[in-house]
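Module 6 notes. Inverse folding takes a fixed backbone as the condition and produces residue identities as the prediction. Think of it as a translation problem where the source language is geometry and the target language is the twenty amino acids. Below is one complete input and output pair. Work through it position by position during the lab.
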């Protein structure tokens, strides 16, 4: 299966999406001069890096400490009490249509993205009874913001009039890296309070979004919240609707991508943690792992926060001391819990496939998997039941899993009362704590793609970059960028990328923002 030439893949509906052309070079190495690279980490970032390196003829070894690929989107088989074999994962992920580079990666194995199916809305529900959604909101800014105000029960015209206009105007003129200079020293909560964002809308909408970073709004950098507002709302006409894979992650994504990588000569070592990395005399590095030492010309470190800290602490010659100290200072977000329940009766047919929640104790969202996932739909049809998934983010580190999962079920009964009569056929729970925490004032210490050693690059959603990307798209984008750094050194052509516009879309609104004296308070408080 052939992938379209770099840069030719559809960018989406937004005609203002920005193309980042690949650097020029050879399509393959010269005879007898094939470089080698170890990619450490088999999640989105590592697979993106390995893909483009292998496509250019680089000898690639992909190390993954877990027994399967996928990182936070990994999946594995489980046998239920009823004898059914099912796939368990770490939970629901939304594939937004702004994720141009992630979609470009997936087009390698699914050119038409036929395995992504769109959900009809992004509904939100608060325990007070308020609800919201984005299906009817216009996608093109600034009509998206005006439409949200006109249609939302949590944000009305009177609320708009009460807002601190001069403090809110910078939302119309987001640019990088300026957004971090202005707002990284302010928490998301303080920023929203400062612009007098309506409390109801704050709880219903922005708190749901901020917790998608697995962080409480009091700890999350306002810069990340403002950037997210730009990526998903005022800076892009792709809208807030999203797609999801129509089968479990291994079947839809990772198994085909693994086959694609192997077809390009990639050596994939799952269940193989990297112990340490040491410079090799004359250049390059020695990778030490259970599979034995391997010498390579370059490294891509595409691991999570704990993994990067661990490798850096065990590799005293990696990059330099200042870089290793900065890595050591990185923090991991609080724990999150995924509870998946197989019920003996269905939820109501009008329940959405995904629902964001607030005001329901620890419950942050509810998914009804048979609405989109083939495996869950087949189980539900056979048993006349339902497969329901519950998420709780930013938990207290001392939270006890059994008590939290019981509370999630109790809150499910509030959200979907018909589930009170359902018997749980089986259940699986994943309590994890390995997501990056974007703390107030922490942007300057986050690693960049480039490191002090030109033969070492870093990729992942924890990485600081100059482009407007977040979450899974940041992982895919930095994976390609990390590969591009090495390809440029070797004279090989890079990967073309796409992003949403890097600044506000309207020249008039940008001028209005600057005239309002935006962000002065944020500038004073930022480091």
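Target side of the pair, the amino acids:
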């Amino acid at each position: 299966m052939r992938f379209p030439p770099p840069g030719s893949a559809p960018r989406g509906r937004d005609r203002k999406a920005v193309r980042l052309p690949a650097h020029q070079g050879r399509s393959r190495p010269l005879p007898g001069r094939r470089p080698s690279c170890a990619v450490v980490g088999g999640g989105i970032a590592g697979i993106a890096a390995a893909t483009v390196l292998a496509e250019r003829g680089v000898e690639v070894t992909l190390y993954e400490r877990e027994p399967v690929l996928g990182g936070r989107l990994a999946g594995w088989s489980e046998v239920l009490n009823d004898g059914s074999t099912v796939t368990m994962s770490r939970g629901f992920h939304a594939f937004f249509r702004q994720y141009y580079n992630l979609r470009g990666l997936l087009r390698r194995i699914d050119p038409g993205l036929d395995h992504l199916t769109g959900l009809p809305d992004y509904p939100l529900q608060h325990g007070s009874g308020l609800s919201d959604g984005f299906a009817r909101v216009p996608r093109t800014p600034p009509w998206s913001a005006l439409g949200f105000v006109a249609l939302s029960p949590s944000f009305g015209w009177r609320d708009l009039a009460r807002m601190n206009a001069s403090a809110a105007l910078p939302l119309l003129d987001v640019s990088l890296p300026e957004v971090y200079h202005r707002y990284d020293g302010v928490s998301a909560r303080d920023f929203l309070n400062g612009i007098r964002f309506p409390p109801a809308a704050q709880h219903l909408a922005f708190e749901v979004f901020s917790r998608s970073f697995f962080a409480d709004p009091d700890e999350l950098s306002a810069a990340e919240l403002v950037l997210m507002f730009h990526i998903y709302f005022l800076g892009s006409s792709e809208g807030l609707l999203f797609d999801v894979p129509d089968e479990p992650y291994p079947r839809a994504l990772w198994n085909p991508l693994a086959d694609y990588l192997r077809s390009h000569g990639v050596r994939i070592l799952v269940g193989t943690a990297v112990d340490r990395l040491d410079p090799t005399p004359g250049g390059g590095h020695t990778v030490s792992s259970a599979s034995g030492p391997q010498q390579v010309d370059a490294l891509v470190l595409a691991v999570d926060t704990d993994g990067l800290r661990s490798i850096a602490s065990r590799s005293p010659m990696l990059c330099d001391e200042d870089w290793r100290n900065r890595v050591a200072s990185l923090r991991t977000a609080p724990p999150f819990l995924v509870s998946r329940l197989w019920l003996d009766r269905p939820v109501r047919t009008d329940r959405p496939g995904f629902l964001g929640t607030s005001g329901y104790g620890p419950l942050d969202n509810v998914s009804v998997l048979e609405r989109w996932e083939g495996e869950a739909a087949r189980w539900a049809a056979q048993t006349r039941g339902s497969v329901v998934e519950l998420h709780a983010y930013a938990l207290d580190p001392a939270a006890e899993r059994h008590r939290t999962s019981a509370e999630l079920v109790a809150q499910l009964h509030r959200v979907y009362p018909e589930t009170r009569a359902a018997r749980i056929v089986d259940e699986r729970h994943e309590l994890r704590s390995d997501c990056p925490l974007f703390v107030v004032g922490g942007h300057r210490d986050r690693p960049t793609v480039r490191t002090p050693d030109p033969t070492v690059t870093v990729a992942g959603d924890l990485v600081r970059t100059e482009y407007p990307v977040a979450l899974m798209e940041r992982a895919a984008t930095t994976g390609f960028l990390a590969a591009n750094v090495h390809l440029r050194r070797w004279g090989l052509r890079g990967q073309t990328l796409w992003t949403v516009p890097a600044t506000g879309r309207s020249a008039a609104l940008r001028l209005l923002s600057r005239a309002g004296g935006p962000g002065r308070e944020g500038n004073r408080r930022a480091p």
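Reference fact for the lab report: The first helix runs from residue 44 to 55.
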